[in-house]
Write a structure and sequence with these properties.
The protein is of the alpha/beta class. Helix content is about 30%, strand content about 25%. The protein is built from ten helices and 15 strands. β12, α8 and β13 form a beta-alpha-beta unit. α3 packs across α4 and α3 packs across α9. The chain starts with a strand and ends with a strand.
Length: about 325
């Protein structure tokens, strides 16, 4: 098979590599599409390697056709599926534990399905499991609202009845997230989100930015609030008044999906299939595909994310 590997200088190279060997309990998939995630950009830059037992090239979520599957798996050869991976999705063939491979939602295309596993697993993990669930009347704060995770988190929080605060960087992105139900949409380049946070103290925050502003907003969390850190795109340092943490019983939670066990990821994916896939088929949840690129144009695809041009997901196609 061919895969988009990284050469010794960390440049992309479409190269012939050995076909993956399916182990017991795994599914073999012919890839139709692979979504691009910011973790892929970090891996390309040499600072976020795949776990040791996964291929050492990019790709965390794919869609495709099952070629081989265990007899007790919920999918069969010929099924259209999507899968969550630890790495290696930028290739013609992949293998994954059977629990991390699920049917695509009825009515969605292969390209749409490739955009689902990583971001929706991230959102479900953090809002449902790490945050201990959300309810009507909660206030949810999510920066980068037009990113793949941002669009998913806004929709999920609204499904749970929350008031949503988010930030964007263009009028086009603002209009899109408002259509999804975001209640307070701010352009972080020209508007001060701190005023909105003070007026609407969050119960839950999902933070992929961090940086100096994080500590200033953190102090306005409600009593018992949960602030979940998943990335530090705005910087890894901030200042937090620790007295605020214990007096208000605020929980600061660090979270990643990639390093979790196959069993943990499988449980999340089964929950997505049962709870959220019917909402996609009913058009109550959507995935927005910003752009598609053939796999050989992966540099252009990464460039869209690096420049933060995307509203939603960028997807690579193989067929």
């Amino acid at each position: 098979m061919h895969a988009m590997i990284l050469d010794e200088n960390r440049n992309f190279l479409w190269a012939e590599v050995p076909d993956p060997l399916r182990k017991e309990g795994e599914v073999l998939i012919r890839v139709h599409a692979a979504a691009v995630n910011r973790a892929d950009l970090m891996q390309k830059d040499g600072c976020y390697a795949s776990p040791p037992d996964w291929p050492q090239w990019c790709g965390l979520e794919v869609s495709g056709e099952v070629l081989e599957a265990p007899a007790n798996a919920c999918v069969r050869p010929g099924d259209a599926v999507c899968a969550l991976l630890g790495g290696g999705g930028y290739s013609e063939l992949v293998t994954a534990p059977a629990g991390m491979v699920i049917p695509i939602p009825e009515g969605l295309s292969m390209i749409e399905a490739a955009s689902l596993p990583e971001v929706w697993s991230t959102v479900y993990l953090n809002l449902q499991l790490e945050a201990g669930g959300m309810k009507k009347g909660d206030v949810f704060y999510m920066q980068a609202g037009a990113s793949g995770v941002g669009l998913a988190a806004i929709q999920y929080a609204k499904q749970l009845g929350a008031e949503v605060i988010t930030t964007i960087d263009s009028a086009e992105k603002a209009a899109f997230v408002r259509k999804l139900g975001a209640d307070h949409v701010l352009d972080y380049r020209t508007e001060d989100v701190r005023k909105v946070i003070e007026a609407h103290p969050p119960t839950v925050a999902l933070d992929c930015i961090g940086g100096p502003l994080m500590g200033e907003c953190f102090r306005n969390m409600v009593f018992g609030g949960r602030w979940i850190m998943i990335a530090t795109m705005g910087g890894a340092e901030t200042t937090i008044n620790l007295e605020t943490v214990w007096r208000k019983r605020i929980r600061l939670i660090g979270s990643t999906l990639r390093s979790r066990t196959p069993e943990e990821k499988s449980a999340i994916l089964q929950a997505l299939q049962c709870e959220l896939w019917p909402l996609f088929s009913a058009k109550k949840l959507i995935t927005n595909i910003h752009a598609t690129f053939p796999i050989r144009e992966v540099e252009q695809a990464h460039g869209v994310l690096r420049r933060a041009e995307n509203i939603g997901k960028v997807v690579l196609t193989f067929v």
